[in-house]
Amino acid sequence: MIIILKNGAKQSEIEPLRNYISKKGIILQDIVGETTRMIGMAGDTSGFTEDMILRYPCVERVMRVKEPYKLASRSFHEADSSFEVEGRKVGGGAFTVIAGPCSVESEEQIVSIAKDVKNSGASFLRGGAFKPRTSPYSFSGLGLDGLELLKIAREKTGLPIVTELMSSEHLDDFINDVDIIQIGARNMQNFTLLRQVGEAGRPVLLKRGLSSSIDEFLMAAEYILSGGAKEVILCERGIRTFETATRNTLDLSAVPVLKAKTHLPVIIDPSHSTGYWSLVEPMSLAATAAGADGLIIEVHNHPEAALCDGEQSITPQLFHRLMGKVRAIREVVHPEAADRQSEMQTTI
Ligand code: PEP
Ligand code: MN
């Protein structure tokens, strides 16, 4: 439900209304439009009728929001949401590139890749310490040791780190040490984990589930937002279809579809969505042209020897080339970005 307040409504009139609603466990969100002030109600509003709210003299009218997600909805937050993570702007017209290996393998590997991707303009370093693998016999990451190596790479390059949390067992370590907590595709509907991560209030990168609809994806984001987190990035990483030529099928239309439905930043993962390094550049360019707010790309200094996802990892050299082309496309789709130099960290 959205409550539209009368023009000139006084705070002393609004307060009793807010108290009445929040006492029933509803989350209130102020929505500041160009000319009107509104309050969004998120939660189980089935106990409220419009008449109950219209009794308050500050109320002009009440609108029901048909979507099941509220805090994630554009109708609750008209403008694109944007926030800063360690001095890097995300959303709201910025372009965020997260790059690094699928998995952290050694100090030499992660530091070398971090330096390279930073020099090419990445704003964040990615690297899995805990890896969700289909086979229990595959390399499943270095765990907390991997997190320590990511911290070393951050220290040496200044790049903030993005890494996947698979279990709440490690939540405290992630709250202390990780700049953006990634929730992977396989955990997109792990509702307990989503709630816990939301309550932690740290920035979250939420990946779309392998077989999840857009609305299910947004409901997963709603779990995180309703827990209290405000900084949530959505990532389309390919979905399951009948097609076998690629690892998954990149749903590129998810970019404009999501951006119409939600204010949250939307980024694309061209690596997991295609499964092949040769497809990473074209899909990155297409995603940029489609209006994505950024990319998360797997980069490895020795893809042929990578312990995970080498076939879809690009080399630092290819990443450098790709960034140059992405920048050129950004000039076209987003010419108003005043300071392209800081939008991506360096210029090629
Ligand atoms: C990843 O980004 O490391 C990953 C495992 O991706 P996804 O959850 O999208 O499969
Ligand atoms: Mn991977």
Protein architecture, described:
The chain is an alpha/beta fold. 35% of the residues lie in helices and 18% in strands. It has twelve helices and 14 strands. The strands form three sheets. The protein has an eight-stranded parallel barrel with strand order 7-8-9-10-11-12-13-14, surrounded by six helices. It has a four-stranded antiparallel sheet with strand order 2-3-1-4. Helix 5 links the parallel strand 9 and strand 10. The longest helix is centred in the C-terminal third of the chain and has 18 residues, at 316-333. The mean pLDDT is 95. Residues 102, 272, 298, 308-309 line the site of manganese (II) ion (MN).
Radius of gyration: 21 Å
Oligomer: single chain
Main sheet overview:
8 strands, parallel, barrel
N-to-C series of helices and strands: EHEEHEEEEHEHEHEHEHEHEHHEHH
Q: Kindly report the spatial arrangement of strands forming the biggest sheet.
A: 7-8-9-10-11-12-13-14
How many separate helices?
Answer: 12
Q: Report helical residue fraction.
A: 25-40%
Instruction: Specify the overall morphology.
Output: elongated
β content, as a range? 15-25%
